[in-house]
Amino acid sequence: MGTVMGTVMAMVTATTGATDRCPMTDDEFKIFRNLVHKECGISLSEARKDFLRTKVEKRLSALNIGSFFQYYKYLTEKNQEEMLIFLDSVTINETYFFRNLPQFEMFGEKVLPDLLERKRRARDYRLHVWSAGCSTGEEAYSIAIQLADAIPDVQLWDVRIIASDISLRCLGLANIGRYCADKLRDVPSKYLSRYFRRDGEHYLVSDSLKKMVTFDYHNLQHENGLENMDVIFCRNVMIYYEIAEQKRLVGRFAKALNHEGYLFLGHAETLQGITTNGDFKFHCWNKGTAYQRLRETHG
Question: Could you list the residue range(s) of the whole structural domain that residue 72 is in?
Answer without folding.
Answer: 2-90
